[in-house]
Design brief:
The complex is a heterodimer of chains A (about 170) and B (about 250). Chain A is α/β, with parallel strands linked by helices and about 170 residues long. Chain A is about 25% helix and about 25% strand. Chain A folds into 2 domains: about 5-90, GMP Synthetase, Chain A, domain 3 (2-Layer Sandwich); about 105-160, no CATH class. By secondary structure, chain B is mostly helical. Chain B has helices spanning about 1-25, 30-60, 65-70, 80-85, 90-110, 120-145, 150-165, 175-180, 195-205, 230-245. Chain B starts with a helix and ends in a 6-residue tail after the last helix. The chains are: A alpha/beta (about 170), B mainly alpha (about 250).
Chain lengths: ~170, ~250
């Protein structure tokens, strides 16, 4: 599937890259793929964001943080929440995936592999601590709506796995 | 326009009331993992409800907003099915209620993706991804409990027997359903019924749970006639807004 590339105006990119996800602070909102467009119209910044999950409580904060960051840089901003097209874990950028892993959250697998892992059929989710794939599912639902809880059977550390959403 | 609003609210109310029921379990789940799972599902449902109510409020105009719709209606103005208001009797009931609802919810959202109404289609495309996880969670637990110990089997069988009477109402067509079906916005629920029962029966069989044979079914919620549980849910849910109107935090 080809993904709709978000349109981010160059002048706004740097500012938005300074806004982090409140629940996964090592990721910026751009790396997370929740900013779908950011453009300047008559000196005013218009930003469209989309939620990862419908009930994601971080969305309100993300909207406020974006407005605040733009304001600090002299832009009045309007943030609009859009639902379509629906967010997908494919929209997490490669840099975002690396940041997730470094932070201790296993990055999402492809859809088929994800299903196998979440059904407990295959041990394929890589432990972000020691790199072993000898890991087991503890719970399909983790600390936030977007994650599942896993445990590494080698280093015995529990860790979050970012669920595939397509 | 009025029928469209009715239609949106009727769909959303199921998620609101079930979400509220699941929210009751926050901190009271049988284990930490199930507690987190059930409240996560609750959160997904509330997220979907917000999208629906915000859309309905826009259509209604005036002072309506998502909060007035959620918190300031009277009992007979809520159009959720009776199934979702049934109490958290024990874990077996929580899971069975979820299981019966999730499979319906998935089939409904699947069809709503093709709705001529762009907003409803967008909400469905978003929701169905979340509901897929719900279906998997509740179906897995049906199997674990049904094919588990003698005690868990007996309890889940009891829950299935008791809640079975609320499944048929999921497919009742209200006036709003009829009208929205005609203009391409809504879904013909009667066409989902066979697939629904096939799917849940296949899980129940795998779970070694007997399928109830009763042909007697309860109805009323979609017309605003609720069971005795509904008043208690609303009392707790609406308490703050009724006591301190317009409060925010």
């Amino acid at each position: 599937m080809t993904l709709p590339e978000p349109y981010i105006e160059d002048d706004l990119r740097e500012i938005l890259d300074g806004v982090s996800d409140p629940e996964i602070p090592v990721l910026t909102v751009l790396q997370m793929g929740v900013v779908r467009s950011a453009r300047l119209e008559n000196g005013k910044a218009k930003v469209q964001i989309t939620p990862t999950y419908s009930g994601c409580p971080a969305m309100d904060v993300i909207g406020d943080d974006i407005k605040k960051a733009l304001k600090e840089n002299g832009y009045d901003a309007e943030v609009e929440l859009i639902l379509s097209p629906a967010w997908s874990t494919d929209w997490i950028t490669p840099a975002g995936r690396t940041a997730l892993e470094k932070y201790g959250i296993a990055a999402p697998l492809e859809a088929d592999a994800d299903k196998e892992a979440l059904l407990g059929n295959k041990r394929i989710v890589k432990c972000p601590q020691c790199g072993s794939t000898n890991t087991i599912l503890v719970s399909q639902f983790g600390s936030t709506a977007c994650k599942a809880l896993f445990k590494c059977e080698d280093c015995l550390e529990p860790f979050d796995y970012f669920k595939c959403l397509k | 326009m009025e029928k469209l609003t009715d239609y949106i609210i009727q769909i959303a109310d199921n998620s609101l009331i079930l979400g509220q029921r699941l929210g009751d379990l926050c901190g009271h789940g049988p284990t930490l993992e199930t507690d987190i799972a059930l409240t996560n599902i609750s959160l997904d449902l509330f997220g979907q409800v917000r999208s629906y109510y915000q859309y309905a409020a826009k259509l209604m105009g005036g002072d309506a907003n998502e909060d007035t719709i959620a918190f300031l209606r009277k009992e007979n103005e809520y159009k959720n099915v009776l199934l979702v208001e049934q109490p958290n009797t024990d874990f077996a009931y929580v899971i069975t209620r979820q299981f019966f609802f999730d499979h319906f919810h998935w089939l409904l959202q699947d069809k709503l993706q093709q709705s001529k109404d762009e907003t409803l289609a967008a909400i469905a495309k978003k929701s169905i991804k979340e509901v897929s996880y719900h279906v998997r969670f509740s179906s897995d637990w049906m199997k674990r409990l049904g094919d588990g110990t003698e005690e868990s089997h007996q309890r889940i069988q009891q829950a299935v027997n008791d809640l079975w009477v609320y499944t048929d109402e999921l497919f009742h067509m209200t006036e709003a359903d009829q009208e929205m079906l005609q203009n391409g916005v809504g879904v013909d629920l009667s066409l989902l019924k066979d697939t629904y029962y096939e799917r849940i029966k296949s899980v129940l069989e795998e779970a070694t749970i007997e399928i109830p044979e009763s042909n007697y079914f309860q109805k009323g919620g979609k017309k605003g006639v609720h069971t005795e549980h509904m008043g208690f849910i609303l009392t707790e849910m609406q308490y703050m807004q009724r006591t301190y109107p317009n409060m925010t935090w």
